[in-house]
Structures are given as C-alpha cells and as structure tokens.
C-alpha cells in the first residue's frame, strides 16, 4: 500500500493542483501528442494488416481473411499516448474456421481449428522485419512493433483470429448469447468473445468526445496509481461511461467531478453492479449473472452478457489495491473539496456583493 500511495503523490494533479487547473493540465500532459501517437499506431497497424493480407492472397496460408478489425483503445478512440496496446481481430472465412453455433455445444473442433490458424499467422508474422517479440497462446498472437513514429516508440499488439459469430445470418443476438451460456465453461466462452468486437466498437461510437477525454484521464490515473496487472482499459472505460450515463449524459462536464465520481465507485467496488441493454435485455443479463454465479463487482460487457469485465479485479488482493489507491486520490488537494453535482455541471463562482458593486461602478465610469 505504501508503494501505491507513493505513486499517487508523484502525480502533479495530486499535489497542489486545484480543480480549475485540471483542464489545462489534461491538454498539456494527455491530449497533446495523443493524436499524433494514434496516427503513428494506425500507420503501423495498417502496414501489418496489409502484409498479412498479402501473404494470405498469395496462397501461402491455408485460409482466407474476411476482414481485420482494429479493437482495443485504438479502435474505440480512447487511446492514451505511450500507455496503449492494440487489439486486432482477424475474421477467418469458413470453412477453415466456422462459427461455434455451426459446430454444436462442444467447442473442441473450433479450438483445434483455431490452433492451426494461430500457428500459421505466427509463421507469417515472423516474415515481417518490423515485427518482433512474437508469442502465442491458445487465444491469440502477441507481438511488438518497434521504432514507431519520430520518437521511436514501441507498440504491443494482440492479434486474435476468430470466426463470424453468426449475427446477421438470421440469428438474433439473444440466440448467440444463450448459445454461449450453454458452453461448458468460461474458458470455452473466451474463444468466442473476440467475434463480438464490432459490437463493442458500435457501443463506443455513441460515446461523445468529452467522455472519451475523461476515460483517458481515468486510464492515466490507473497507469500511474495501480500495478501493471490492473491496467486493463475496458473495465475503466465502461465504469466511466456508466457514471456519465448515471449523471444524465451531460454534454459539458467538469473533469474533476467526473474523475471523483468514478474514483468513488472504485473506492467501493463491492457495491458495483451494472449491466447494459444495448444488445440484450435485463432478463438475459440477470439470467447470465445468476447462471454464471457472478458476485460484485459486476459490469457486464455491453456486447457480451456472459463476460463480467471486472473479473480481473477479484483476483488476489486486487479489490483492496484499487480501493486503497482510489481512497488516497480522493483525499488529494485536487479532489477532496470537489462536490459531485447531479449532472457534473461546471459550476462558475458567484461574485461577492462587494465585487459586483465595484464592477458596476467601474462600468458607469
């Protein structure tokens, strides 16, 4: 805990900064450079995608790519310079990889097919001179792109091959989710969650830029105040959106109020329980929570009710680590006196009567 507290005190906005200075600090330390970093990332990712597509088109791989979708922070528009990785989801055309709905409730065939594709993609990536540090597991291939942009940064990339989930082919989303609930274990369900990435992106498309800016601020807090294992972006993104919607979806916000609201939730994770009705209804969400035995903290993925994005928080002492770090930041000069209004309104100070009278006299002169 001492280490976490020390990291909090290193933050400039947790020392002498007051709320009205936060906007300026955000633009100087977070916003500036993020756009250029995003452009560099997109350029590098496009180079990887085109190279892999070229290898596929020359029949050097035994499968065909349908499309490659940029997920993660890059695809959602919440990238944070120097602190973001990228997810690439590669949709494989059948028959080499078929939807698990076409294979029945036992996913063994799908897993076997996926393993072969991952091995082929790994071999293809090893042909690219600008790709390094290639590793794979049963779900994905991880690699690094070095010398990114003028600053020579590095970018971590997760490449996840998957089949189409079957949406848009006469199957309702509810049918997809019920089929996933019928799978034997959470381990089996993980093999199919990547196929829902486009629904995650569609959910994020409706979120305005000022909320994504707050998300970047919350993620920056996490990167500075929490250990590496708790730098997962998606839970923080969804918790921030949940609190913004709870505030009435304001179009103008005080970043200090928004940050404090989110940290208050993170300081009491055992009280966190939320689901969305974006692709599924409340009945299906409750069914998933009950059937899977979920306990708080719960935030269901809006694109996948079988996935509680807060599961990582329940490992070891993670809940206490997050709650302690949030409590420490809430006591900082920046936030300790901030009052979170119902809609995160930017409050303007009311001039004192003396100053108001003086201003009127000056105008008369």
UniProtKB/TrEMBL annotation:
<dbReference type="GO" id="GO:0001730">
    <property type="term" value="F:2'-5'-oligoadenylate synthetase activity"/>
</dbReference>
<dbReference type="GO" id="GO:0016020">
    <property type="term" value="C:membrane"/>
</dbReference>
<dbReference type="GO" id="GO:0005829">
    <property type="term" value="C:cytosol"/>
</dbReference>
<feature type="domain" description="Polymerase nucleotidyl transferase">
    <location>
        <begin position="65"/>
        <end position="107"/>
    </location>
</feature>
<feature type="domain" description="2'-5'-oligoadenylate synthetase 1">
    <location>
        <begin position="189"/>
        <end position="337"/>
    </location>
</feature>
<dbReference type="Pfam" id="PF10421">
    <property type="entry name" value="OAS1_C"/>
</dbReference>
<dbReference type="InterPro" id="IPR002934">
    <property type="entry name" value="Polymerase_NTP_transf_dom"/>
</dbReference>
<comment type="similarity">
    <text>Belongs to the 2-5A synthase family.</text>
</comment>
<protein>
    <submittedName>
        <fullName>Uncharacterized protein</fullName>
    </submittedName>
</protein>
<dbReference type="InterPro" id="IPR043518">
    <property type="entry name" value="2-5OAS_N_CS"/>
</dbReference>
<dbReference type="GO" id="GO:0005654">
    <property type="term" value="C:nucleoplasm"/>
</dbReference>
<dbReference type="Pfam" id="PF01909">
    <property type="entry name" value="NTP_transf_2"/>
</dbReference>
<dbReference type="InterPro" id="IPR043519">
    <property type="entry name" value="NT_sf"/>
</dbReference>
<dbReference type="InterPro" id="IPR018952">
    <property type="entry name" value="2-5-oligoAdlate_synth_1_dom2/C"/>
</dbReference>
<dbReference type="GO" id="GO:0003725">
    <property type="term" value="F:double-stranded RNA binding"/>
</dbReference>
């Amino acid at each position: 805990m001492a280490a976490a507290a020390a990291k909090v005190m290193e933050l400039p906005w947790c020392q002498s900064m007051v709320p009205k200075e936060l906007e300026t600090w955000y633009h100087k330390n977070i916003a500036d450079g993020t756009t250029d970093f995003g452009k560099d990332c997109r350029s590098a990712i496009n180079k990887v995608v085109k190279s892999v597509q070229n290898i596929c088109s020359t029949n050097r791989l035994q499968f065909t790519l349908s499309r490659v979708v940029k997920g993660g922070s890059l695809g959602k528009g919440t990238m944070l310079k120097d602190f973001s990785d990228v997810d690439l989801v590669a949709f494989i055309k059948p028959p080499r990889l078929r939807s698990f709905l076409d294979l029945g409730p036992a996913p063994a065939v799908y897993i076997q097919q996926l393993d072969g594709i991952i091995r082929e993609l790994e071999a293809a990536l090893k042909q690219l001179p600008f790709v390094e540090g290639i590793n794979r597991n049963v779900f994905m291939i991880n690699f690094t792109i070095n010398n990114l942009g003028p600053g020579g940064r590095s970018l971590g990339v997760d490449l996840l091959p998957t089949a189409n989930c079957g949406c848009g082919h006469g199957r309702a989303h509810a049918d997809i989710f019920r089929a996933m609930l019928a799978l034997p274990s959470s381990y089996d369900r993980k093999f199919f969650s990547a196929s829902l990435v486009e629904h995650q992106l569609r959910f994020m498309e409706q979120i305005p830029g000022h909320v994504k800016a707050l998300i970047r601020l919350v993620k920056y807090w996490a990167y500075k105040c929490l250990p590496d294992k708790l730098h997962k972006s998606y839970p923080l993104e969804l918790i921030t959106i949940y609190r913004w919607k709870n505030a009435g979806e304001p179009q103008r916000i005080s970043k200090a109020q928004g940050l404090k609201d989110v940290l208050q939730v993170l300081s009491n994770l055992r009280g966190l329980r939320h689901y969305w009705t974006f692709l599924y209804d409340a009945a299906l969400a409750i069914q998933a929570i009950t059937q899977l035995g979920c306990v708080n903290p719960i935030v269901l993925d809006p694109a996948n009710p079988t996935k509680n994005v807060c599961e990582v928080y329940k490992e070891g002492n993670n809940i206490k680590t997050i709650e302690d770090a949030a409590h420490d930041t809430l006591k900082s000069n920046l936030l300790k006196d901030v009052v979170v209004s119902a809609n995160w309104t930017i409050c303007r100070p009311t001039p004192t009567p003396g100053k108001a009278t003086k201003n009127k006299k000056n105008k008369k002169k």
